[in-house]
């Protein structure tokens, strides 16, 4: 009998310790939540203690990546200073180049905000590629079949269709995860291929342009094109939509009950259960948001850059968004500078290849090394916190 009593007492102490830990987790989430955010606002995401540390970490990772890449350029017999100058002028050398770079950044930022929200809840969504593809497909269908609508209404309807299609595609992965227990990494990754194949099937079928030498749809009417922000350049209003998405993601994460539940789910499942936060509702909700943003990114790309649906238009955006969300430490406000960094790198890559003779693929080396250094620093920081 005494042995049973002691065992029961030990079990009670363990339960009390677990509950205490869950209460501490909830308290930390509250302390980092809306009250604190209202004091420091969006500015605190960059200049507060945590934001400053994140910014310094990202800056150090970028500097190290450029330093290591410079060594590789030297080994190849080229001058890294000339290469980086060509990269810089290729991205910022003229108003047209800046406009091109900002257009390149737009799908990165839109998709990156959704992925960052997913990562904040410990939902590993790598399905941006397929969600962008399906969103662009739905947007193109509306632009082609409802072309008689007024311009503003046509653009709005097309982008809403893209958001709904992207959210529905993400919901498919969420349903497989919640109903069948298949991990979201596998679901979202495989659905990327299905989404791109759907676009290919549509372009080789009813939506394809007859007589075209490449799988593409007919050109959209002018009323479906996104308005230009700067006369004489290709800069479209998609970058404004991306900035609004960043602000909305920041408010959602830090100033709403839903954002609090996401942060709680990302901190501890047991703490979330203790607080009554539903994993299923949080998982489905954040996947719908991420899919909708990716769908809008696909719609912006076809309405603002290509003016038609073309095969393979979404390749690269979704996976780069994962790297951008990691570089931003799963913080929506930090996705904006991270997305700009990736977009301007891509914009300057061709100039570096043309003027110095260095392959444009070297940009992927810079991006990859940046992610390696960021993840290493994050891992070291987590280890120090545990100690």
The poorly predicted ranges are 4-12, 15-19, 25-31, 33-40
CATH fold-level name of the domain at 105-352: ABC transporter involved in vitamin B12 uptake, BtuC
Terminus-to-terminus distance: 39 Å
The helix content is: over 70%
Strand content: under 5%
* Oligomer status: single chain
The CATH class of the domain at 105-352, by name, is Mainly Alpha
Number of helices: 16
Average pLDDT figure: 85
CATH A-level architecture of the domain at 105-352: Orthogonal Bundle
Any chance you could write out the topology, listing elements then pairs?
Elements: H1 2-31, H2 34-40, H3 44-47, H4 49-75, H5 80-92, H6 95-120, H7 128-145, H8 151-180, H9 184-203, H10 238-255, H11 257-267, H12 269-275, H13 279-306, H14 317-327, H15 332-356, H16 362-386
Helix pairs in contact: 1-11, 1-12, 4-16, 5-15, 6-10, 6-11, 6-13, 6-14, 6-15, 7-8, 7-9, 7-13, 7-14, 8-9, 8-13, 10-11, 10-15, 11-12, 11-13, 14-15
Write a structural description.
The longest helix is centred in the N-terminal third of the chain and has 30 residues, at 2-31. It contains 16 helices and no strands. It has a domain at 105-352: ABC transporter involved in vitamin B12 uptake, BtuC. It has helices spanning 2-31, 34-40, 44-47, 49-75, 80-92, 95-120, 128-145, 151-180, 184-203, 238-255, 257-267, 269-275, 279-306, 317-327, 332-356, 362-386. The protein has 387 residues and is an all-alpha fold. 78% of the residues lie in helices and 0% in strands. It starts with a helix and ends with a helix.
């Amino acid at each position: 009998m005494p042995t049973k009593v002691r065992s029961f007492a030990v079990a009670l102490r363990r339960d009390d310790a677990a509950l205490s830990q869950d209460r501490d987790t909830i308290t930390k989430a509250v302390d980092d939540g809306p009250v604190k955010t209202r004091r420091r606002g969006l500015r605190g995401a960059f200049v507060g203690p945590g934001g400053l540390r994140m910014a310094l970490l990202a800056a150090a990772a970028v500097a190290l990546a450029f330093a290591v890449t410079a060594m590789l350029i030297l080994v190849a017999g080229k001058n890294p200073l000339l290469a980086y100058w060509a990269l810089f002028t290729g991205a910022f050398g003229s108003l047209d180049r800046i406009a091109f770079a900002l257009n390149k950044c737009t799908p990165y930022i839109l998709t990156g905000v959704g992925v960052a929200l997913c990562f904040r809840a410990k939902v590993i969504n790598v399905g941006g590629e397929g969600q962008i593809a399906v969103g662009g497909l739905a947007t193109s269908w509306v632009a082609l079949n409802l072309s008689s609508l007024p311009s503003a209404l046509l653009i709005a309807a097309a982008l809403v269709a893209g958001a709904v299609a992207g959210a529905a595609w993400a919901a498919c992965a969420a349903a497989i995860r919640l109903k069948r227990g298949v991990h979201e990494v596998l679901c979202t990754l495989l659905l990327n291929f299905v989404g791109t194949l759907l676009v290919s099937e549509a372009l080789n079928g009813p939506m394809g342009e007859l007589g075209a030498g490449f799988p593409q749809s007919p050109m959209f009417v002018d009323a479906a094109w996104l308005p230009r922000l700067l006369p004489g350049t290709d800069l479209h209003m998609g970058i404004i939509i991306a900035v609004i998405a960043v602000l909305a993601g920041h408010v959602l994460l830090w100033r709403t009950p839903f954002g609090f539940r996401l942060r709680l789910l990302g901190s501890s499942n047991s703490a979330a259960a203790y607080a009554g936060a539903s994993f299923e509702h949080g998982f489905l909700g954040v996947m719908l948001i991420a899919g909708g943003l990716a769908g809008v990114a696909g719609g912006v790309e076809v309405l603002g850059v290509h003016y038609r649906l073309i095969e393979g238009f979404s390749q690269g955006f979704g996976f780069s968004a994962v790297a951008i969300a990691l570089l931003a430490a799963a913080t929506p406000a930090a996705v904006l500078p991270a997305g700009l960094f990736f977009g301007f790198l891509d914009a300057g890559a061709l100039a570096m290849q043309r003027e110095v003779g260095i392959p444009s693929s070297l940009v992927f080396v810079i991006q990859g090394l940046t992610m390696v250094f960021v993840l290493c620093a994050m891992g070291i920081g987590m280890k120090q916190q545990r100690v």
